[in-house]
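Lab notebook: predicted structure, single chain.

Context: the supervisor wants predicted structures on file for every construct in the current expression panel, including those that have not yet been purified. This is the next one on the list. No modifications to the sequence; it matches the entry in the shared construct table.
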Amino acid sequence: MVWLRAFIAGFFSTLIFHQGMLALLHFGKLVPRAPFAMTPVPPLGIPSVISLAFWGGLWGVLLWAMIRGQSGGTHWLLAVVLGALLPSLVALLVVFPLKGMAFAANWDPKIWVGAALLNGAWGFGVALLMQWLGRR
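Prediction complete. Output recorded below exactly as produced.
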């Protein structure tokens, strides 16, 4: 049951925290991409943001497995740092090339920092939502 909650936390953290941070960065004119992309993604044609949220749910299970035994500041710090690092590294070093994009985004520091901000916010959201879901 806890793994289902972790998936739900990761899924909704993507929609609330990750996309919320993307909205802030976009409206601040720091990134060109707008939040909540509805572009269909093959092979099922579901909206891009829902696909992203699904993967966020899977990452949520992994993140929760790594931080669940921690408490206090360590718990929150690990959620943000691991959230910022792990999905960003996989996206930039694996997913980008698989999608025909430049490996490591050509090492552009703005893209790396942006990815870390988006995914760090997501990691914080996973920890927060897991805390909230655990009380329900």
